Amino acid sequence: MAESEQHMNYVRQIVSYIETFPNCCSDLIEADLPSYVGRTTKIFSGHYPDVYYNDNSMIILGEAKTDNDIENKHTTSQIKAYIEEELLFNGEKHIVFCCSFYSLATLMNLVIHLKNKTETKDIKFHFIDSLNRVFHL
To answer: How many domains are contained in the chain?
Structure first.
């Protein structure tokens, strides 16, 4: 379950954003929110993303990050695992992050660093900040 109200708000932002994707079936969205039943699908590495979507043509993993939960080994491990999971998928690949305006540059720099160390094969990275602005890598 999401740790804080702020974290849950970021998860909600991710869900709302995913619902705007063309051909998205919102019934397939799994989210770490009280209004959703159960946990999200566990990915191959054992991590549970905050948001999970897979309709066999597109996979989307979503991760909400509060200010004190970006620069640590756990977050680095999660991002690496999400990249590895998406590389196993043959369709459209997306990873969506949401964080505060103040932490956006830090999170984007971490993802750029990990992306440059890994073959990301058409994974689209999306970043939503607390002002609901969207950025892409």
So the answer is: 1
